[in-house]
Amino acid sequence: MLALEIWCGILVSSLGCGARPWELDDAVRRRLVKRIYVPLPDVDARLALLRNTLNGQPARLRDIDLERIAQITEGYVQRGVLQPHPNSR
Predict the structure, then answer these.
(1) Which neighbouring-strand residues pair with 3?
(2) Where are the domains of the chain?
(3) What is the model's pLDDT at position 12?
(4) How far apart are CA 89 and CA 87, in angstroms?
(5) CA 70 to CA 87: how far, in whole Å?
(6) What is the mean pLDDT of residues 38-67?
């Protein structure tokens, strides 16, 4: 989110973002007047994220495996799709 205001004669801009903007304090939301909604990645975007991330890596996943992973990660943000599980090696 972006906020512009004059403070002590100086133009001040603020930029904020988060996965849960509804948890921000009302006073903060009032100051961040411009809101841009970025939706979660759809299945095609998740598949592209996986392919781009694994490009050049020694992964042995076939396209059918990547497509299945893209399908079952519905509702995940980009980081959730790409971040390895803490127990993986």
Answers:
(1) 14
(2) 2-31, 43-82
(3) 66
(4) 7
(5) 20
(6) 86
Cα 57 from Cα 43, distance rounded (Å):
22
Convert the pLDDT of each residue in 29-47 to its tens digit. Answer: 777 777 777 788 899 999 9
d(CA 73, CA 45): 11
Structural contact between residues 14 and 32, judged by C-beta atoms closer than 8 angstroms? yes
The alpha-carbon radius of gyration of the chain (Å, integer) is 19
Give 29-36 contacts, CB < 8 A, sequence gap 24+.
Answer: 29/1, 31/3, 31/5, 32/1, 32/2, 32/3, 33/2, 33/3, 33/4, 34/1, 34/2, 34/3, 35/1, 36/1
What are the backbone angles phi and psi of residue 24, rounded to the nearest 5°?
A: -70, 150
Question: According to DSSP H, which parts of 17-74 are helical?
Answer: 26-31, 43-54, 63-72
Measured distance CA(63)–CA(15) in Å, rounded: 38
pTM of the full structure:
0.59
